[in-house]
Amino acid sequence: MSTALYDSVIADFYDASPLVASRLQDVNFYLAAARNFGSPILELGCGTGRISAPLAQAGHPVTGLDISEKMLQRAEQKRASLPAEQRAHLRLVQGDMTSFDLQDYFPLIIAPFRPFQHLLNIREQLSCLACARRHLEAGGRLILDFFQTDAARMHDPDFLKEHTIADYEIAGDRRVRLTERTTAFHRATQCNDVEMAFTVTGPGGEQSRNVFAFTIRYFFRYEVEHLLARAGFRVLELFGDFDGSPLRDDSPEMIFVATAS
Question: What is the mean pLDDT of the chain?
Answer without folding.
Answer: 96
